[in-house]
């Protein structure tokens, strides 16, 4: 038998060709998917709407996650706001699409952001960080890897105790990248709670700038 005569019918050739085509299409759409995901995770993308609409970007640019002695962008907007797991990420992307409509209708503007919108949005985002125990912060910061012995004693103690106290990073680090709504700027969670056993207070500026 001569194997080299096969495939007998030229149609059979369609199978490997079809497979190849499917592979190429698959690769292209995967590429497009990642392209869209990467693009929409970019600071430039977030900036494009939030600049001129609110003061979020400018505040972030003053923060240590954008400017610091090391000169690294420590965290992009998406690092803190978009989960890395596929399904939660897709949910955020889809629900965030509704933001486009708000943007287009111009509901939120520099002159009404602080009073009419920030309290609502901050409350919502804060709740997310409380519910997921500040999961996005922990992509980068792991308590287990903190050199607690090199932190101030009171700080180390807070980090050490936070899990058993069921705390979330932003219980103490609210306002780490943005100003807090005016109504909350006076209440400082890090200072009001968890101070029973501590006498000396660390700088409150960094905790609640
Ligand atoms: C198409 C314009 C647009 C783009 C692009 C955009 N945003 Fe927004 N964003 C908005 C608008 C408008 C709101 C307010 C939505 C509302 O009023 O509910 C908002 C609200 C938010 C909120 C608060 C949502 C909440 O849960 O209450 C976060 C966090 C946020 N944006 C982060 C981001 C990040 C991170 C990016 C980039 C990955 C981004 N945005 C890109 C327009 C945009
Ligand atoms: C280091 C993490 C971090 C980074 C980086 C960050 N955010 Fe946030 N963001 C938060 C947290 C935490 C909150 C909840 C309120 C608070 O504590 O400030 C928040 C709140 C918000 C809100 C709700 C309104 C408000 O004033 O609280 C919006 C909108 C938002 N972020 C958008 C962005 C955009 C756009 C960027 C990039 C320009 C960005 N964030 C960068 C952590 C971050
Ligand atoms: C993508 C990685 C990343 C994410 C996400 C991230 N951080 Fe950071 N964070 C860093 C790096 C890197 C630094 C060090 C910047 C420097 O050199 O000062 C830092 C610095 C800090 C500091 C020290 C501030 C100071 O003034 O020295 C605090 C507090 C902090 N982060 C809290 C948070 C909290 C809370 C969140 C979640 C809301 C968060 N970070 C999310 C990478 C990240
Ligand atoms: C019970 C309050 C509390 C909790 C909860 C907490 N922190 Fe802190 N953290 C502090 C205080 C106080 C400081 C010292 C002042 C400062 O630098 O902000 C601090 C400092 C830091 C620093 C700077 C350390 C350094 O060596 O410069 C980082 C980074 C940080 N915290 C990250 C986190 C992250 C991430 C979480 C959540 C996993 C977290 N913290 C939870 C209170 C807390």
TrEMBL record:
<feature type="binding site" description="covalent">
    <location>
        <position position="169"/>
    </location>
    <ligand>
        <name>heme 4</name>
    </ligand>
</feature>
<feature type="binding site" description="covalent">
    <location>
        <position position="77"/>
    </location>
    <ligand>
        <name>heme 2</name>
    </ligand>
</feature>
<feature type="binding site" description="covalent">
    <location>
        <position position="140"/>
    </location>
    <ligand>
        <name>heme 3</name>
    </ligand>
</feature>
<feature type="binding site" description="axial binding residue">
    <location>
        <position position="99"/>
    </location>
    <ligand>
        <name>heme 1</name>
    </ligand>
</feature>
<dbReference type="GO" id="GO:0009061">
    <property type="term" value="P:anaerobic respiration"/>
</dbReference>
<keyword id="KW-0479">Metal-binding</keyword>
<feature type="binding site" description="axial binding residue">
    <location>
        <position position="173"/>
    </location>
    <ligand>
        <name>heme 4</name>
    </ligand>
</feature>
<feature type="binding site" description="axial binding residue">
    <location>
        <position position="81"/>
    </location>
    <ligand>
        <name>heme 2</name>
    </ligand>
</feature>
<dbReference type="InterPro" id="IPR024717">
    <property type="entry name" value="NapC/NirT/NrfH"/>
</dbReference>
<dbReference type="InterPro" id="IPR051174">
    <property type="entry name" value="Cytochrome_c-type_ET"/>
</dbReference>
<keyword id="KW-0349">Heme</keyword>
<keyword id="KW-0472">Membrane</keyword>
<feature type="binding site" description="covalent">
    <location>
        <position position="49"/>
    </location>
    <ligand>
        <name>heme 1</name>
    </ligand>
</feature>
<keyword id="KW-0249">Electron transport</keyword>
<feature type="binding site" description="axial binding residue">
    <location>
        <position position="178"/>
    </location>
    <ligand>
        <name>heme 2</name>
    </ligand>
</feature>
<keyword id="KW-0812">Transmembrane</keyword>
<keyword id="KW-0813">Transport</keyword>
<keyword id="KW-1133">Transmembrane helix</keyword>
<feature type="binding site">
    <location>
        <position position="99"/>
    </location>
    <ligand>
        <name>a menaquinol</name>
    </ligand>
</feature>
<dbReference type="GO" id="GO:0005886">
    <property type="term" value="C:plasma membrane"/>
</dbReference>
<feature type="domain" description="NapC/NirT cytochrome c N-terminal">
    <location>
        <begin position="20"/>
        <end position="182"/>
    </location>
</feature>
<feature type="compositionally biased region" description="Low complexity">
    <location>
        <begin position="182"/>
        <end position="193"/>
    </location>
</feature>
<feature type="binding site" description="axial binding residue">
    <location>
        <position position="53"/>
    </location>
    <ligand>
        <name>heme 1</name>
    </ligand>
</feature>
<feature type="binding site" description="covalent">
    <location>
        <position position="80"/>
    </location>
    <ligand>
        <name>heme 2</name>
    </ligand>
</feature>
<feature type="region of interest" description="Disordered">
    <location>
        <begin position="178"/>
        <end position="209"/>
    </location>
</feature>
<feature type="transmembrane region" description="Helical">
    <location>
        <begin position="12"/>
        <end position="33"/>
    </location>
</feature>
<keyword id="KW-1003">Cell membrane</keyword>
<feature type="binding site" description="covalent">
    <location>
        <position position="46"/>
    </location>
    <ligand>
        <name>heme 1</name>
    </ligand>
</feature>
<dbReference type="GO" id="GO:0019333">
    <property type="term" value="P:denitrification pathway"/>
</dbReference>
<dbReference type="InterPro" id="IPR005126">
    <property type="entry name" value="NapC/NirT_cyt_c_N"/>
</dbReference>
<dbReference type="InterPro" id="IPR038266">
    <property type="entry name" value="NapC/NirT_cytc_sf"/>
</dbReference>
<keyword id="KW-0408">Iron</keyword>
<feature type="binding site" description="axial binding residue">
    <location>
        <position position="141"/>
    </location>
    <ligand>
        <name>heme 3</name>
    </ligand>
</feature>
<feature type="binding site" description="covalent">
    <location>
        <position position="137"/>
    </location>
    <ligand>
        <name>heme 3</name>
    </ligand>
</feature>
<feature type="binding site" description="covalent">
    <location>
        <position position="172"/>
    </location>
    <ligand>
        <name>heme 4</name>
    </ligand>
</feature>
<dbReference type="Pfam" id="PF03264">
    <property type="entry name" value="Cytochrom_NNT"/>
</dbReference>
<dbReference type="GO" id="GO:0009055">
    <property type="term" value="F:electron transfer activity"/>
</dbReference>
<dbReference type="GO" id="GO:0020037">
    <property type="term" value="F:heme binding"/>
</dbReference>
<comment type="similarity">
    <text>Belongs to the NapC/NirT/NrfH family.</text>
</comment>
<dbReference type="GO" id="GO:0046872">
    <property type="term" value="F:metal ion binding"/>
</dbReference>
<dbReference type="InterPro" id="IPR036280">
    <property type="entry name" value="Multihaem_cyt_sf"/>
</dbReference>
<protein>
    <recommendedName>
        <fullName>Cytochrome c-type protein</fullName>
    </recommendedName>
</protein>
